[in-house]
Specification:
This protein has 262 residues and is of the alpha+beta class. It has a single domain, classed as Glutamine synthetase/guanido kinase, catalytic domain (Creatine Kinase, Chain A, domain 2, 2-Layer Sandwich). It is 31% helix and 18% strand. The strands form two sheets. The chain has a seven-stranded antiparallel β-sheet with strand order 2-3-4-1-7-9-8. Strands 5-6 form a two-stranded antiparallel sheet. Strand 8 and strand 9 form a beta hairpin. Helix 3 crosses helix 9. The radius of gyration is 20 Å and the shape is globular. The termini are far apart.
C-alpha cells in the first residue's frame, strides 16, 4: 500500500487516473482536488436574453406566463420529447459498488426501514436490480448504491412526481455520503453535488429537420447520441427542482426549433 492508496476501499492513484471514479467517500482525502475539478456547476438559468433575436420575442412572451399557462402552451405545442429524471446516492460510509459490489444486507435494511420499500419486493433468490418505488424505479448495482429515475412523455407528470413526498427522503445527508463542500458524493464526480440529472430525448430525424440548421445548442446543455444515433439526448446534471421555470423555458425554446420537423 502506498500513500496514494485509499486505506478504506483500496482505490489507488492508478485506478483513479484510469477510471476517474472513487470507491468511497474516504478517497476524497487523496483525490479531492481532481474530483472537485470535475463536479458540474449547480447553477442553471435560461431566458430570452440568451437566444437569437428571431426566437427571443416568442420566448420572452412565454417567460412571463404563469406556470399553469406555460403548461397549457407546451400542451398546444406537443413537443416530440420524452423526459427522464434521475437521482443517485451512496449509503453513508459504505464502499461503492465500483470497488466491492452492492452491500445487499445493509442496502436491504435501508430500503425497508429508511425509505419504506415493501419487504415483498426484496424477497427471492436474486437481488433485484430494478425496484418500483415512488412512482418511478430504484436501480441498484451500478456505480453507486442507489439510483431512482422516472421516464415519461409528459413534462408535467415528471415534475409532479419529482416534487412528491417520497423523493424528499433522498434529501437527508445523514443517510447518504455527504461532503459540506461537494454535497452528495458519488463514484463519478460528474454526478456529485445534487446527484441529479434531467434530460429530454427526441428522434435524430426530427432534430435534423429543425427549422434553423445553424441553431447552436446552449453551452450549458450536454448531449449524447443513443441507439446507434437514432435519438439525441440533451441533459443537465445537478438540476434542482427550483430551476423548473428555466427548464420549462428551455423545453419551449427547443420545441420551437423542431416544430416544423414534427
Amino acid at each position: 500500500m502506498t500513500s496514494e492508496t485509499c486505506l478504506y476501499c483500496g482505490t489507488d492513484r492508478k485506478t483513479w487516473n484510469e477510471r476517474g471514479k472513487i470507491g468511497c467517500i474516504h478517497c476524497l482525502k487523496l483525490f479531492r482536488k481532481e474530483y472537485s475539478a470535475n463536479v458540474r456547476e449547480q447553477s442553471f438559468a435560461f431566458s430570452s436574453q440568451y437566444v437569437h433575436k428571431q426566437d427571443a420575442e416568442r420566448l420572452s412572451r412565454f417567460e412571463f406566463l404563469s406556470e399553469s399557462e406555460k403548461w397549457k402552451e407546451l400542451e398546444k405545442l406537443k413537443p416530440p420529447f420524452s423526459y427522464r429524471f434521475r437521482i443517485g446516492r451512496n449509503l453513508a460510509g459504505r464502499i461503492y459498488p465500483t470497488a466491492s459490489g452492492v452491500p445487499t444486507t445493509v442496502l436491504k435494511s435501508f430500503l425497508i426501514d429508511g425509505i419504506g420499500v415493501p419487504t415483498a419486493l426484496l424477497e427471492g433468490p436474486n437481488w433485484p436490480t430494478r425496484i418500483p418505488w415512488g412512482e418511478g424505479n430504484l436501480f441498484t448495482g451500478d456505480e453507486d448504491h442507489l439510483r431512482w429515475e422516472i421516464i415519461t412523455d409528459s413534462l408535467e407528470e415528471l415534475f409532479s412526481k419529482i416534487e412528491a413526498p417520497p423523493i424528499k427522503k433522498f434529501e437527508n445527508p445523514e443517510f447518504f455520503d455527504f461532503d459540506p463542500n461537494l454535497h452528495y458524493v458519488t463514484s463519478c464526480p460528474t454526478n456529485a453535488g445534487l446527484g441529479t440529472k434531467i434530460s429530454l430525448k427526441l428522434s435524430m430525424r426530427i432534430w435534423k429537420n429543425r427549422k434553423n440548421a445553424s441553431f447552436k445548442i446552449p453551452g450549458f446543455l450536454e448531449f449524447y447520441l443513443e441507439n446507434s444515433s437514432e435519438f439525441v439526448v440533451f441533459y443537465l446534471k445537478n438540476f434542482a427542482v427550483s430551476q423548473k421555470n428555466s427548464f420549462l423555458n428551455l423545453v419551449y425554446y427547443l420545441a420551437l426549433q423542431v416544430k416544423s420537423g414534427f
